TrEMBL record:
GO MF annotation terms: inorganic triphosphate phosphatase activity; metal ion binding
Database matches in PANTHER family: INORGANIC TRIPHOSPHATASE
Domain CYTH: 1-132
Protein name according to UniProt: CYTH domain-containing protein
Classification via InterPro entries: CYTH-like_dom_sf, CYTH_domain, YgiF
Organism superkingdom: Bacteria
SUPFAM superfamilies recorded: CYTH-like phosphatases
Amino acid sequence: MSEIELKFVTQHDAHQAFKERVLPLFERHHVKVLSHEELRLENDYYDTEQQHFQQAKMGFRVRGNNGTYEQTLKTNGKVSGGLHQRAEYNIPLANPSPDLTLFESDVWPNDWQIQSMNSQLVKQFSTHFTRH
């Protein structure tokens, strides 16, 4: 799947104004807006000690929400006018442990040894937030 994300940084109380004023403008111009329920998301981002993901301009995370887990691979993409566009692959997980071998082999750079890299993953940082 390919996605285009438009991200906003707002004051804490801007959510309602955004829904009332900005979303109707998107709809008027036939831009599909996916609405989400409020989610408490816990995210752990991984790389190897050799920084394979960073060097390839890729991102890999495990996200948890209320006991449900998913791992996401975001490939190198492009940014234009504040829009981020790149391929993204999501795989459900039974627990929060990352497993690179669950992705199809064609998503990886040809020279990556996924079995070996899987055991070399190191958590780089965690970020937790509420999505409205």
